[in-house]
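As described in the Methods, two query proteins were run sequentially through the folding procedure within a single session, without resetting any intermediate state between them. The first query and its resulting C-alpha cells are shown here.
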Amino acid sequence: MLILPACGHSEQNRLAQNGCRYVDKEGFMYAQADTSTSSDLLVYTKADTPKTGSQLLPEETFTILQSFINNLSELGLSAQLVSLQDQRDISLTVKEAGTATTTATSTVEIRLDLSDSLNQAYTDLKTVIEKDAFVATSSDKAGTQENKVSPFALEYIDLRFGNKVFYK
C-alpha cells in the first residue's frame, strides 16, 4: 500500500505499525519511514515489503500515477490511501479536499488499472463528477425515481474498464 501523505497520521496508525517505507519520485524504496514526521513522499507498507533500494514501480508508471493523484485536487478530491493490489490494479481512497477528518461516509475508493491510460481514466472521472452522473434509482407508488448521489456516498468508482465507469 502507498499511503498519502505519511504513515504517522492518526487515521493510518494501524497501517504504520506494519512498517512504513518511503518511496521516491522514481519509485525506489527507502529505509523505514519516521512516522512522527510529515512528508509529501508516498509511503509503502505491507507485510512483505520489497527490499530497501528496490524499485516499487517503473519510473514512468510511478510518474503517471503521481500526476493522476496530484490532479485529483482539481476535482475537489484529496488522496488518502493508495493501495497497490499487484503490478496493475490499484485503488485510491479519496476524501473531499479541505475536510479535516476522514470517516467511512466521506471517502470513496477509486479503482484503476495501471496498464490503461490514466489520463483517460482522469478524464472519465472528471466527466462523471462534473456532470453529477452518479444516480440511485428508487421505486415508489408513483413509479421509478432517480436521485443524484454524491461521490462520497458511494463505496467505489471503478475506472478499470475502458471508458466505462462503474460505481456502487
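Immediately afterward, the second query was submitted; its sequence and C-alpha cells are:
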Amino acid sequence: MSDRDERPQESNPIGGEMGQAPLVNADIAQDVAKAAGWVVNRIRTDRSSFLETFIKKPLRSFFKAYQDDPWLRAATSTKVSAVINLFFVFYQAYNAYRRSSLWFAALSAYYAWLTFMRVNIVTYMQTLAADGREELRRYRRTGVHLLFLTTVVIVLGIVSNRLGYRPSYATHMLVVVALFAFYNVTAAVINLHKWRKLEDPLISASKALSLSCALVSLYSLQTAAIGRFAATSDARIINFLTYATPIVIFLIIASISLFIILRVNWVLKAIGSDD
C-alpha cells in the first residue's frame, strides 16, 4: 500500500472532495455584526442627542417661561388666534371663488385684516415703545379699524340677505363656521378673564379684537344657518334676525371702538401729547 493511501483524508463538509475552503468566515461575520451594532447605537445616540438639543430642551424652556411670564402667554394666545384666523381666511376666499359670493369675499377680507392686526399687536408686544404714548396710539388705531371693518361686514350682511343675494352654505361649510364661531367665543371669554389683571393698551387691544371676532363669527354662523334652512323656516323670524342680530352686534362693537378712541384721545390730551 502506498503512502498516499495511508494518509487520512481531511474532513471538509463544505468543500467536499474538491478540498475548497469554507465560504463563510466566522471572524468576518462577527466583525460585520459588531460594525452594524456600532452603527445602530450611534444612530440611537445621535437621535437622542438631537431630540434633547433641538426639541425637548427648547420645549422645556418655553413651557417654563410660559408658566412664569403672563406677557408670553398673551403673545402666544394672540399668535394661535392669528394662525387659526389665517386658515379661515383661505377657506372663505376659496368659497368666494367657487360660489362667486361677495359675502364670502367680505368675510375673507375681514378676517385677513384681523389677522394682520393680531400680528401687529404681537410685534408691538415684542418691541416695546419708548413710552406709553405710542402704545396708546396703537390702541386707538385698533378701535378705528374695528369700527370701520365691522360696519362694512354688517352692511354687506344685511344687503346680501335682503336683496336676494343670500349666501348658500353646504353642510360641511355650516360645520366649519360653527366650529370657528365656537373657538372664537371660547377664546374671547378666556382672554377677558385671563388678562383682566394686565392693564396695558396692547392687551386691551387684543381683548377687543377677540371679542369683536367672536361677535362677527356668531353673526356669520347665523347667516350660514339662515342660508341653509331658510326654505323650511318661518319668514318672520328670519326677517327679524336679519336685522336684529347685526344691529345688536354693530352697537356692541361700535361702543367698544368708540370707547377705545375717546379714552385714548382723553388720555393723550391729559398728558399733553396727541401729535
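The CA atoms of residues 150 and 250 lie 7 Å apart. We note this only descriptively and draw no conclusion about the first query from it.
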